[in-house]
């Protein structure tokens, strides 16, 4: 858990305790960043995104979108995470150009230009 996520969880917990309420931590789970350790298949491919796509903290729509990658944004696709046993549903990428250059995160693999069949 990164420092910001810990701070948010601590503030939420403190506020709830002061008000006498219970704390639900499930909402902070989507803010946590899931890295390359969640990958199921290695890809290692320099490519780009072919349409505007949300850039997320984890491999799924339940994770926080930290921004959008515009069409043509260059990415280094490190690996992917399958969905229901199929490889390729989500790609873990390092952004190589644009507003999020240098950041790592997840995008739906269907929006990455891929010169191969994934499933």
Would you mind describing this structure in some detail?
With 119 residues, the protein is α+β, with helices and mostly antiparallel strands. It contains 2 helices and 6 strands; from the N terminus they run ααββββββ. The chain has a 4-stranded antiparallel sheet with strand order 1-4-5-6, with no helix packed on it. Strands 2-3 form a two-stranded antiparallel ribbon. The two termini are 32 Å apart. The relative contact order is 0.19. This is SH3 domain-containing protein. Keywords: Signal. Residues 1-31 form the signal peptide. It holds the Pfam family SH3_3.
Report low-confidence residues grouped into runs of 5 or more: 1-29
Helix-strand pattern: HHEEEEEE
Radius of gyration: 16 Å
Number of helices: 2
Helix content: 10-25%
Mean pLDDT: 74
- Overall strand count: 6
**Beta-strand proportion:** 35-45%
Q: Give the termini separation.
A: 32 Å
Largest sheet: 4 strands, antiparallel
Which strand order does the major sheet show?
Answer: 1-4-5-6
What class would the helix/strand composition place it in?
alpha+beta
Q: What's the overall geometry?
A: globular
Oligomer description:
single chain
Protein name: SH3 domain-containing protein
Domain SH3b: 52-112
Organism: Streptomyces lavendulocolor
Signal peptide: 1-31
